[in-house]
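Saturday, quiet lab. Running sequence design on the C-alpha cells for the scaffold JK sent over.
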C-alpha cells in the first residue's frame, strides 16, 4: 500500500510510520511526503530516507483551484492509496477529501469526539484536557471528512491523567501512544482488515 504522508512540523509520527515499515510491522511504503511548511523537519526526514518530499502550499498559488490540481496530481503521480495526516496543520481541500474518502487518516492527541475541532491543536488540547478535570486522555486515529477532527473513529488508546501532569508532560505521554497506534491503524488498512459501515469502523483480527 502506498501511503502519502502530510506533515507540517517535526514529523515524529512520520518517523514512527517509517520505523514500523523498516521493522516490517507495516506492509506499506511512503510514496510521498507533502508539507505546507518549507521548514518542516518532516521534509528533511523524507529526504534523508530518499522519499519524494514536496513543499506544496496554497500560498505558492494565486488560484486555489491550481493548488488543489497540483495536490491531486502529486497524489496520483505517486500512486497514492492512502493519505496519512501526521501533524498537518491545514484543512485538506474538500476536493481531495472527496477523491480519497475513507482513505484519509489523521491522528489527534485526545479522545475524540471530546477536545477536537477548530483551535484544538498542540498544547491547546492538553491544557483544555487538564482544565476540564478529566481523569483520562489519549490519542485517536480517525477517518478524515470535511470537518476539523470529524470523521469516524478508527482506533483509540487511553491513558490516565496523573497528579502533577502539566500540558507539556501530558503531550509527551500522549505522543508516545500516538506513535504506537498510528502504525497499527495503518497496518489494518494495509492488510484490508477495515470495514466501514456508515459512521462505524470495524477492524477485523488478522486472519479473521
Ligand atoms: C501530534 O500531536 C498529532 O497528534 C497532531 O500533531 C502532532 C504532530 O506531531 N495532529 P509530530 O509532527 O508527528 O511530531
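Result came back. Writing it out in full:
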Amino acid at each position: 500500500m502506498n501511503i502519502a504522508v502530510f506533515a507540517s512540523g517535526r514529523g515524529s509520527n512520520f518517523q514512527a510510520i517509517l520505523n514500523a515499515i523498516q521493522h516490517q510491522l507495516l506492509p506499506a511504503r511512503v510514496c510521498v511526503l507533502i508539507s505546507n511548511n518549507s521548514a518542516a523537519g518532516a521534509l528533511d526526514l523524507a529526504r534523508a530516507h530518499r522519499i519524494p518530499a514536496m513543499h506544496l502550499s496554497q500560498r505558492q498559488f494565486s488560484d486555489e483551484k491550481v493548488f488543489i490540481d497540483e495536490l491531486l496530481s502529486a497524489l496520483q503521480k505517486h500512486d497514492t492509496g492512502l493519505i496519512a495526516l501526521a501533524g498537518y496543520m491545514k484543512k485538506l481541500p474538500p476536493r481531495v477529501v472527496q477523491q480519497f474518502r475513507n482513505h484519509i487518516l489523521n491522528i489527534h492527541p485526545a479522545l475524540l469526539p471530546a477536545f477536537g475541532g477548530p483551535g484544538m491543536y498542540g498544547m491547546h488540547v492538553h491544557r483544555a484536557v487538564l482544565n476540564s478535570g478529566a481523569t483520562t486522555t489519549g490519542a485517536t486515529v480517525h477517518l478524515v471528512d470535511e470537518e476539523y477532527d470529524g470523521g469516524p473513529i478508527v482506533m483509540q488508546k487511553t491513558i490516565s491523567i496523573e497528579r502533577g501532569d502539566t500540558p507539556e508532560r501530558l503531550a509527551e505521554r500522549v505522543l508516545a501512544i500516538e506513535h504506537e497506534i498510528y502504525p497499527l491503524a495503518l497496518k489494518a488498512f494495509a492488510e484490508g482488515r477495515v470495514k466501514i459501515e456508515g459512521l462505524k469502523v470495524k477492524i477485523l483480527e488478522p486472519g479473521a
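Notes for JK: The mean pLDDT is 97. Residues 13 and 152 are 20 Å apart (CA to CA). Ask whether to fix the surface positions before the next round.
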